[in-house]
Design a protein that fits this description.
By secondary structure, the chain is mainly β. The protein is built from no helices and four strands.
Length: 66
Protein backbone atom coordinates (compact mmCIF):
# COMPACT_ATOMS: atom_id res chain seq x y z
CA UNK A 1 0.00 0.00 0.00
CA UNK A 2 1.56 3.35 -1.00
CA UNK A 3 2.01 6.01 1.64
CA UNK A 4 -0.24 9.09 1.37
CA UNK A 5 2.68 11.48 1.93
CA UNK A 6 6.14 12.43 0.63
CA UNK A 7 9.22 14.27 1.86
CA UNK A 8 9.16 12.72 5.34
CA UNK A 9 11.81 14.19 7.64
CA UNK A 10 12.49 13.61 11.34
CA UNK A 11 13.66 16.31 13.76
CA UNK A 12 14.61 16.72 17.42
CA UNK A 13 15.02 12.97 17.97
CA UNK A 14 15.88 11.90 21.52
CA UNK A 15 16.78 8.31 22.39
CA UNK A 16 16.91 6.97 25.95
CA UNK A 17 18.21 3.46 26.54
CA UNK A 18 17.23 1.88 29.85
CA UNK A 19 18.78 -1.58 29.97
CA UNK A 20 16.73 -3.66 27.50
CA UNK A 21 14.19 -0.90 26.72
CA UNK A 22 14.68 2.13 24.45
CA UNK A 23 12.37 5.15 24.27
CA UNK A 24 12.44 7.41 21.22
CA UNK A 25 10.75 10.80 21.06
CA UNK A 26 10.77 13.12 18.07
CA UNK A 27 8.97 15.29 15.57
CA UNK A 28 8.30 14.55 11.92
CA UNK A 29 7.27 16.73 9.00
CA UNK A 30 5.85 15.58 5.68
CA UNK A 31 3.80 16.70 2.67
CA UNK A 32 0.41 15.14 1.92
CA UNK A 33 0.12 13.84 -1.65
CA UNK A 34 -3.62 14.57 -1.92
CA UNK A 35 -3.46 18.34 -1.45
CA UNK A 36 0.21 19.29 -0.94
CA UNK A 37 -0.28 20.53 2.63
CA UNK A 38 2.63 20.30 5.02
CA UNK A 39 1.90 18.37 8.21
CA UNK A 40 3.73 17.80 11.47
CA UNK A 41 3.50 15.08 14.11
CA UNK A 42 5.06 14.29 17.47
CA UNK A 43 5.87 10.66 18.09
CA UNK A 44 7.00 8.25 20.77
CA UNK A 45 8.22 4.73 20.16
CA UNK A 46 9.21 2.03 22.65
CA UNK A 47 11.57 -0.81 21.75
CA UNK A 48 12.50 -3.89 23.74
CA UNK A 49 15.66 -5.89 23.19
CA UNK A 50 14.74 -9.54 22.63
CA UNK A 51 17.53 -12.03 22.01
CA UNK A 52 19.89 -9.23 20.85
CA UNK A 53 17.29 -7.74 18.45
CA UNK A 54 15.44 -4.46 19.09
CA UNK A 55 11.68 -4.93 18.57
CA UNK A 56 9.15 -2.09 18.45
CA UNK A 57 6.54 -2.83 21.14
CA UNK A 58 4.63 0.47 21.06
CA UNK A 59 4.33 3.53 18.81
CA UNK A 60 2.17 6.63 18.91
CA UNK A 61 2.04 9.79 16.78
CA UNK A 62 -0.16 12.84 17.30
CA UNK A 63 -0.61 16.24 15.68
CA UNK A 64 0.75 19.05 17.89
CA UNK A 65 -1.93 20.80 19.90
CA UNK A 66 -4.29 17.81 20.04
Amino acid sequence: MPRPFKDLAVHDVKVRILSDVALIHGRSTYTMLADGTEQESLYTEAYQKRESTWVCVSACAIAPGT
